Amino acid sequence: MICVLVLASGHRWEPVALGHLDSHPATTALKRCVDVDDLMASATTGQADVALVALDAPGLDPDVVSHLHRHGVRPVLVALERVDDVDVVEQARRLGVEHVLAADGLHGLIDALTSAQGLADTHPRPMAHAGPPPEAAPDDDAPRRTFVVWGPAGAPGRTTIAVNLAAELARRGRPVLLTDLDPYGGSVAQQLGILDEVSGVLAGARLAGSGHLAERFGSACRGVGEHLGVLTGLPRADRWREVRPAHVEQLLVEAALHADVVADTGFCLEEDVAELGGRSGRNAMTLTALDLADEVVVVGAADPIGLARLARGLVELSERLPDATVRVVVNRMRGTIGWSEREVARMVEGFARVAGLHFLPEDRAGQDRALVSGRPAVDLGESAWTAGIAALADTLLPDSVVSLRRRRGGRALLR
User: Fold this and answer.
1) Closest CA to 396 of 308, 264, 296, 312
2) What's the whole-model pTM score?
3) How would you list the strands of the sheet with 27-32, edge to edge?
4) Over 90: is that where the pLDDT of 344 sits?
Protein backbone atom coordinates (compact mmCIF):
# COMPACT_ATOMS: atom_id res chain seq x y z
CA MET A 1 0.00 0.00 0.00
CA ILE A 2 1.33 3.45 -0.99
CA CYS A 3 0.32 6.09 1.55
CA VAL A 4 0.08 9.55 0.00
CA LEU A 5 0.13 13.05 1.48
CA VAL A 6 -1.70 15.61 -0.67
CA LEU A 7 -1.00 19.34 -0.74
CA ALA A 8 -3.06 20.88 -3.53
CA SER A 9 -3.09 24.49 -2.27
CA GLY A 10 -6.73 24.87 -3.29
CA HIS A 11 -6.35 23.80 -6.94
CA ARG A 12 -9.20 22.07 -8.73
CA TRP A 13 -7.16 18.97 -9.51
CA GLU A 14 -7.36 17.81 -5.86
CA PRO A 15 -10.75 15.98 -6.11
CA VAL A 16 -9.58 14.25 -9.27
CA ALA A 17 -6.40 13.07 -7.59
CA LEU A 18 -8.26 11.88 -4.50
CA GLY A 19 -10.66 9.94 -6.72
CA HIS A 20 -7.74 8.11 -8.38
CA LEU A 21 -6.22 7.32 -5.00
CA ASP A 22 -9.46 6.02 -3.51
CA SER A 23 -10.32 3.86 -6.51
CA HIS A 24 -6.96 2.09 -6.73
CA PRO A 25 -6.39 -0.85 -4.35
CA ALA A 26 -2.65 -0.10 -3.92
CA THR A 27 -2.93 3.57 -2.91
CA THR A 28 -4.56 5.60 -0.17
CA ALA A 29 -4.73 9.28 0.66
CA LEU A 30 -3.19 9.45 4.14
CA LYS A 31 -3.85 13.16 4.71
CA ARG A 32 -4.86 16.36 2.93
CA CYS A 33 -2.34 18.94 4.12
CA VAL A 34 -3.31 22.59 4.49
CA ASP A 35 0.15 24.08 3.87
CA VAL A 36 3.85 23.27 3.60
CA ASP A 37 4.39 23.24 7.36
CA ASP A 38 1.56 20.74 7.75
CA LEU A 39 3.12 18.63 4.99
CA MET A 40 6.52 18.62 6.71
CA ALA A 41 5.04 17.76 10.09
CA SER A 42 3.03 14.90 8.56
CA ALA A 43 6.15 13.54 6.85
CA THR A 44 7.92 13.20 10.21
CA THR A 45 5.39 10.61 11.41
CA GLY A 46 6.98 7.99 9.16
CA GLN A 47 3.63 6.79 7.82
CA ALA A 48 3.73 8.36 4.34
CA ASP A 49 5.49 7.06 1.23
CA VAL A 50 4.80 9.79 -1.35
CA ALA A 51 3.74 13.44 -1.27
CA LEU A 52 1.60 14.83 -4.10
CA VAL A 53 2.31 18.55 -4.05
CA ALA A 54 1.25 21.54 -6.12
CA LEU A 55 4.29 22.98 -7.89
CA ASP A 56 3.29 26.50 -6.86
CA ALA A 57 2.53 25.65 -3.22
CA PRO A 58 3.58 28.67 -1.09
CA GLY A 59 6.80 27.94 0.79
CA LEU A 60 7.84 24.95 -1.33
CA ASP A 61 11.63 25.11 -1.71
CA PRO A 62 14.65 22.75 -1.86
CA ASP A 63 14.81 22.59 1.93
CA VAL A 64 11.24 21.23 2.08
CA VAL A 65 12.12 18.62 -0.55
CA SER A 66 15.22 17.62 1.43
CA HIS A 67 13.08 17.32 4.56
CA LEU A 68 10.68 14.96 2.76
CA HIS A 69 13.54 12.81 1.51
CA ARG A 70 15.12 12.60 4.97
CA HIS A 71 11.85 11.13 6.27
CA GLY A 72 11.45 8.67 3.39
CA VAL A 73 8.73 10.59 1.54
CA ARG A 74 9.14 10.94 -2.25
CA PRO A 75 7.66 14.11 -3.78
CA VAL A 76 5.58 14.17 -6.96
CA LEU A 77 4.72 17.63 -8.27
CA VAL A 78 1.53 18.70 -10.05
CA ALA A 79 1.85 21.65 -12.44
CA LEU A 80 -0.95 23.68 -13.97
CA GLU A 81 1.11 24.06 -17.16
CA ARG A 82 2.48 21.40 -19.49
CA VAL A 83 5.26 19.37 -17.93
CA ASP A 84 7.61 20.29 -20.80
CA ASP A 85 7.09 24.00 -20.22
CA VAL A 86 10.46 25.71 -19.69
CA ASP A 87 9.41 27.30 -16.40
CA VAL A 88 8.06 24.00 -15.06
CA VAL A 89 11.23 22.12 -15.99
CA GLU A 90 13.43 24.81 -14.41
CA GLN A 91 11.43 24.93 -11.18
CA ALA A 92 11.41 21.14 -10.81
CA ARG A 93 15.17 21.06 -11.45
CA ARG A 94 15.74 23.75 -8.83
CA LEU A 95 13.70 21.79 -6.30
CA GLY A 96 15.48 18.54 -7.14
CA VAL A 97 12.29 16.64 -8.00
CA GLU A 98 12.15 14.14 -10.87
CA HIS A 99 8.43 13.37 -11.10
CA VAL A 100 6.11 16.09 -12.42
CA LEU A 101 2.52 15.65 -13.67
CA ALA A 102 0.27 18.08 -15.47
CA ALA A 103 -3.00 18.89 -13.71
CA ASP A 104 -4.91 17.76 -16.79
CA GLY A 105 -2.89 14.53 -17.05
CA LEU A 106 -3.64 12.84 -13.76
CA HIS A 107 -4.60 9.61 -15.53
CA GLY A 108 -0.91 8.72 -15.07
CA LEU A 109 -0.98 9.46 -11.35
CA ILE A 110 -0.78 5.87 -10.09
CA ASP A 111 2.18 5.05 -12.33
CA ALA A 112 3.99 8.19 -11.15
CA LEU A 113 3.37 7.39 -7.48
CA THR A 114 4.54 3.82 -7.93
CA SER A 115 7.68 4.97 -9.72
CA ALA A 116 8.46 7.58 -7.06
CA GLN A 117 7.84 5.17 -4.19
CA GLY A 118 10.22 2.65 -5.74
CA LEU A 119 13.17 5.05 -5.86
CA ALA A 120 16.28 4.31 -3.83
CA ASP A 121 16.62 6.14 -0.54
CA THR A 122 19.42 8.34 -1.79
CA HIS A 123 18.13 11.36 -3.68
CA PRO A 124 19.94 13.64 -6.09
CA ARG A 125 21.45 16.77 -4.66
CA PRO A 126 19.86 19.88 -6.09
CA MET A 127 22.14 21.99 -8.25
CA ALA A 128 24.98 19.48 -8.20
CA HIS A 129 25.26 19.67 -11.98
CA ALA A 130 28.37 20.69 -13.82
CA GLY A 131 28.99 24.41 -13.92
CA PRO A 132 31.78 26.38 -15.56
CA PRO A 133 35.08 24.49 -15.37
CA PRO A 134 37.24 25.66 -12.46
CA GLU A 135 40.43 27.50 -13.22
CA ALA A 136 43.00 25.15 -11.72
CA ALA A 137 46.47 26.33 -10.89
CA PRO A 138 48.94 25.61 -13.72
CA ASP A 139 50.73 22.88 -11.75
CA ASP A 140 47.72 21.43 -9.98
CA ASP A 141 45.01 19.21 -11.42
CA ALA A 142 44.07 17.46 -8.17
CA PRO A 143 40.38 17.12 -7.30
CA ARG A 144 38.94 19.81 -5.06
CA ARG A 145 38.45 19.07 -1.37
CA THR A 146 36.15 20.39 1.34
CA PHE A 147 37.59 20.95 4.82
CA VAL A 148 35.23 21.84 7.65
CA VAL A 149 36.70 23.50 10.74
CA TRP A 150 34.72 22.71 13.86
CA GLY A 151 35.31 22.88 17.60
CA PRO A 152 33.42 22.93 20.89
CA ALA A 153 32.26 26.03 22.73
CA GLY A 154 34.73 28.37 24.36
CA ALA A 155 36.36 30.20 21.43
CA PRO A 156 39.26 27.75 20.93
CA GLY A 157 40.26 29.50 17.70
CA ARG A 158 38.09 27.91 15.00
CA THR A 159 37.80 31.03 12.86
CA THR A 160 41.46 31.98 13.24
CA ILE A 161 42.58 28.55 12.10
CA ALA A 162 40.04 28.42 9.24
CA VAL A 163 41.18 31.84 7.96
CA ASN A 164 44.87 30.99 8.14
CA LEU A 165 44.48 27.49 6.72
CA ALA A 166 42.63 28.91 3.71
CA ALA A 167 45.25 31.65 3.29
CA GLU A 168 48.11 29.14 3.51
CA LEU A 169 46.58 26.91 0.83
CA ALA A 170 45.98 29.96 -1.38
CA ARG A 171 49.65 30.97 -0.97
CA ARG A 172 50.51 27.68 -2.62
CA GLY A 173 48.67 28.63 -5.79
CA ARG A 174 45.50 26.64 -5.18
CA PRO A 175 42.12 28.35 -5.68
CA VAL A 176 40.48 28.36 -2.23
CA LEU A 177 37.07 29.52 -1.05
CA LEU A 178 36.74 30.38 2.63
CA THR A 179 33.12 30.05 3.74
CA ASP A 180 31.68 31.42 6.98
CA LEU A 181 28.88 29.09 8.12
CA ASP A 182 28.81 29.99 11.80
CA PRO A 183 25.13 30.59 12.70
CA TYR A 184 25.97 32.14 16.08
CA GLY A 185 28.52 34.85 15.30
CA GLY A 186 30.60 34.50 12.17
CA SER A 187 33.70 36.71 12.18
CA VAL A 188 35.65 35.74 9.06
CA ALA A 189 34.93 39.11 7.44
CA GLN A 190 36.16 41.03 10.48
CA GLN A 191 39.39 39.01 10.66
CA LEU A 192 40.11 39.85 7.04
CA GLY A 193 39.21 43.52 7.34
CA ILE A 194 36.06 43.23 5.22
CA LEU A 195 33.78 45.87 6.66
CA ASP A 196 30.85 46.06 4.22
CA GLU A 197 27.47 44.65 5.20
CA VAL A 198 26.93 42.42 2.16
CA SER A 199 26.71 38.78 3.25
CA GLY A 200 28.03 36.26 0.75
CA VAL A 201 26.24 33.37 2.44
CA LEU A 202 22.88 35.18 2.36
CA ALA A 203 23.42 36.17 -1.28
CA GLY A 204 24.33 32.60 -2.15
CA ALA A 205 21.28 31.25 -0.30
CA ARG A 206 19.01 33.56 -2.28
CA LEU A 207 20.63 32.43 -5.53
CA ALA A 208 20.22 28.79 -4.52
CA GLY A 209 16.56 29.35 -3.69
CA SER A 210 15.89 30.99 -7.05
CA GLY A 211 17.76 28.39 -9.08
CA HIS A 212 20.49 30.77 -10.34
CA LEU A 213 23.41 29.70 -8.16
CA ALA A 214 25.45 27.98 -10.87
CA GLU A 215 25.53 30.88 -13.31
CA ARG A 216 25.87 33.63 -10.68
CA PHE A 217 27.92 31.95 -7.98
CA GLY A 218 30.84 34.32 -8.44
CA SER A 219 28.69 37.33 -7.57
CA ALA A 220 28.30 36.06 -3.99
CA CYS A 221 32.06 35.66 -3.47
CA ARG A 222 34.56 38.33 -2.57
CA GLY A 223 38.17 38.07 -3.68
CA VAL A 224 40.81 38.89 -1.06
CA GLY A 225 43.85 37.73 -2.98
CA GLU A 226 44.99 36.15 -6.21
CA HIS A 227 43.79 32.69 -5.21
CA LEU A 228 41.58 33.28 -2.14
CA GLY A 229 37.85 34.02 -2.23
CA VAL A 230 35.47 34.50 0.69
CA LEU A 231 31.78 33.85 1.28
CA THR A 232 31.20 36.17 4.22
CA GLY A 233 28.87 35.13 7.02
CA LEU A 234 25.65 36.36 8.55
CA PRO A 235 25.54 40.11 9.27
CA ARG A 236 23.38 39.37 12.32
CA ALA A 237 23.00 36.09 14.14
CA ASP A 238 19.18 36.21 13.94
CA ARG A 239 19.28 35.86 10.14
CA TRP A 240 20.20 32.18 10.26
CA ARG A 241 16.58 31.37 9.29
CA GLU A 242 17.31 32.63 5.76
CA VAL A 243 19.92 29.90 5.15
CA ARG A 244 18.33 26.47 4.87
CA PRO A 245 20.27 23.18 4.89
CA ALA A 246 19.58 22.72 1.17
CA HIS A 247 21.12 26.15 0.54
CA VAL A 248 24.27 25.20 2.45
CA GLU A 249 24.51 21.94 0.53
CA GLN A 250 24.16 23.68 -2.82
CA LEU A 251 26.70 26.35 -1.87
CA LEU A 252 29.33 23.81 -0.83
CA VAL A 253 28.73 21.54 -3.81
CA GLU A 254 28.97 24.47 -6.23
CA ALA A 255 32.03 25.91 -4.47
CA ALA A 256 33.85 22.58 -4.73
CA LEU A 257 33.49 22.73 -8.52
CA HIS A 258 35.72 25.80 -8.54
CA ALA A 259 38.09 25.60 -5.57
CA ASP A 260 39.17 23.83 -2.42
CA VAL A 261 36.73 24.81 0.32
CA VAL A 262 37.53 25.72 3.93
CA ALA A 263 34.33 26.17 5.95
CA ASP A 264 34.18 27.79 9.39
CA THR A 265 31.23 26.54 11.44
CA GLY A 266 29.47 26.94 14.77
CA PHE A 267 30.08 24.89 17.91
CA CYS A 268 26.76 23.11 18.55
CA LEU A 269 25.93 19.65 17.17
CA GLU A 270 22.42 19.45 18.59
CA GLU A 271 19.72 18.72 15.99
CA ASP A 272 17.26 21.42 16.94
CA VAL A 273 13.91 22.09 15.30
CA ALA A 274 13.00 25.72 14.78
CA GLU A 275 9.28 25.43 14.11
CA LEU A 276 6.36 23.11 14.73
CA GLY A 277 6.31 22.37 11.01
CA GLY A 278 9.58 20.49 11.35
CA ARG A 279 11.91 22.93 9.62
CA SER A 280 15.55 22.57 10.56
CA GLY A 281 16.87 24.80 13.30
CA ARG A 282 19.83 27.07 13.85
CA ASN A 283 22.48 24.35 13.99
CA ALA A 284 21.58 22.95 10.57
CA MET A 285 24.21 25.15 8.89
CA THR A 286 26.95 23.47 10.93
CA LEU A 287 25.52 19.96 10.68
CA THR A 288 25.06 20.14 6.91
CA ALA A 289 28.63 21.33 6.41
CA LEU A 290 29.97 18.49 8.55
CA ASP A 291 27.96 15.95 6.56
CA LEU A 292 29.60 17.19 3.34
CA ALA A 293 33.17 17.43 4.64
CA ASP A 294 35.99 15.41 3.10
CA GLU A 295 37.90 16.00 6.33
CA VAL A 296 36.95 17.64 9.63
CA VAL A 297 39.49 19.78 11.45
CA VAL A 298 38.55 19.83 15.14
CA VAL A 299 39.99 22.71 17.18
CA GLY A 300 40.44 22.65 20.95
CA ALA A 301 42.15 24.95 23.44
CA ALA A 302 45.17 23.71 25.43
CA ASP A 303 43.89 24.32 28.96
CA PRO A 304 41.94 22.14 31.40
CA ILE A 305 38.55 23.56 30.42
CA GLY A 306 39.32 23.57 26.70
CA LEU A 307 40.63 20.00 26.72
CA ALA A 308 37.60 18.76 28.67
CA ARG A 309 35.33 20.39 26.10
CA LEU A 310 37.45 18.93 23.30
CA ALA A 311 37.09 15.41 24.75
CA ARG A 312 33.30 15.72 24.97
CA GLY A 313 33.16 17.27 21.51
CA LEU A 314 35.11 14.42 19.94
CA VAL A 315 32.69 11.91 21.44
CA GLU A 316 29.68 13.85 20.13
CA LEU A 317 31.25 14.19 16.70
CA SER A 318 32.09 10.50 16.44
CA GLU A 319 28.51 9.61 17.37
CA ARG A 320 27.17 11.79 14.57
CA LEU A 321 29.85 11.03 11.96
CA PRO A 322 31.41 7.68 12.87
CA ASP A 323 33.21 7.36 9.52
CA ALA A 324 34.50 10.92 9.23
CA THR A 325 38.19 11.65 8.72
CA VAL A 326 39.07 13.83 11.71
CA ARG A 327 42.22 15.82 12.45
CA VAL A 328 42.60 17.52 15.80
CA VAL A 329 44.36 20.84 16.35
CA VAL A 330 45.25 21.73 19.93
CA ASN A 331 45.59 25.50 19.90
CA ARG A 332 47.44 27.83 22.32
CA MET A 333 49.78 25.13 23.61
CA ARG A 334 52.09 26.53 26.28
CA GLY A 335 54.46 25.27 28.91
CA THR A 336 52.67 26.96 31.80
CA ILE A 337 49.80 24.48 31.47
CA GLY A 338 52.09 21.74 32.77
CA TRP A 339 51.14 19.04 30.25
CA SER A 340 53.36 17.74 27.49
CA GLU A 341 52.23 17.10 23.93
CA ARG A 342 52.53 13.37 24.61
CA GLU A 343 50.16 13.60 27.58
CA VAL A 344 47.62 15.61 25.58
CA ALA A 345 47.90 13.10 22.72
CA ARG A 346 47.10 10.21 25.05
CA MET A 347 44.02 12.07 26.27
CA VAL A 348 42.78 12.71 22.73
CA GLU A 349 43.42 9.12 21.64
CA GLY A 350 41.40 7.92 24.61
CA PHE A 351 38.25 9.59 23.30
CA ALA A 352 38.46 9.25 19.51
CA ARG A 353 40.42 7.76 16.67
CA VAL A 354 41.89 10.64 14.70
CA ALA A 355 43.82 10.83 11.44
CA GLY A 356 46.28 13.34 12.84
CA LEU A 357 47.06 15.51 15.86
CA HIS A 358 48.61 18.97 15.55
CA PHE A 359 49.78 21.45 18.16
CA LEU A 360 49.87 25.22 17.73
CA PRO A 361 51.79 27.28 20.29
CA GLU A 362 50.46 30.32 22.10
CA ASP A 363 51.21 33.40 19.96
CA ARG A 364 49.12 36.26 21.30
CA ALA A 365 51.40 38.95 19.87
CA GLY A 366 51.24 37.49 16.37
CA GLN A 367 47.48 37.10 16.49
CA ASP A 368 47.06 40.67 17.70
CA ARG A 369 49.13 41.96 14.77
CA ALA A 370 47.00 39.94 12.36
CA LEU A 371 43.71 41.20 13.82
CA VAL A 372 44.80 44.84 13.81
CA SER A 373 46.03 44.63 10.22
CA GLY A 374 43.01 42.64 8.96
CA ARG A 375 45.27 40.03 7.40
CA PRO A 376 45.96 36.33 8.08
CA ALA A 377 48.94 35.69 10.34
CA VAL A 378 50.52 33.50 7.64
CA ASP A 379 50.86 36.61 5.46
CA LEU A 380 52.79 38.56 8.12
CA GLY A 381 55.94 36.48 8.37
CA GLU A 382 57.31 33.24 9.76
CA SER A 383 56.65 32.08 13.32
CA ALA A 384 56.24 28.82 15.20
CA TRP A 385 52.45 29.28 14.96
CA THR A 386 52.42 29.81 11.17
CA ALA A 387 54.79 26.85 10.80
CA GLY A 388 52.14 24.74 12.54
CA ILE A 389 49.48 25.95 10.10
CA ALA A 390 51.79 25.07 7.21
CA ALA A 391 52.28 21.57 8.63
CA LEU A 392 48.50 21.17 8.89
CA ALA A 393 48.12 22.25 5.25
CA ASP A 394 50.86 19.77 4.26
CA THR A 395 48.91 16.86 5.73
CA LEU A 396 45.54 17.97 4.37
CA LEU A 397 46.79 18.54 0.83
CA PRO A 398 50.17 16.83 0.29
CA ASP A 399 50.12 17.80 -3.40
CA SER A 400 50.24 21.47 -2.43
CA VAL A 401 53.76 20.98 -1.02
CA VAL A 402 54.94 19.83 -4.44
CA SER A 403 53.11 22.76 -5.98
CA LEU A 404 54.92 25.23 -3.73
CA ARG A 405 58.30 23.68 -4.50
CA ARG A 406 57.67 24.17 -8.20
CA ARG A 407 56.59 27.77 -7.70
CA ARG A 408 59.81 28.40 -5.76
CA GLY A 409 62.00 26.96 -8.50
CA GLY A 410 62.36 23.48 -7.06
CA ARG A 411 63.53 24.61 -3.57
CA ALA A 412 62.06 22.45 -0.84
CA LEU A 413 59.82 24.10 1.71
CA LEU A 414 61.59 24.30 5.05
CA ARG A 415 59.89 25.66 8.13
Assistant:
1) 296
2) 0.72
3) 27-32, 2-7, 50-54, 74-79, 99-102
4) yes
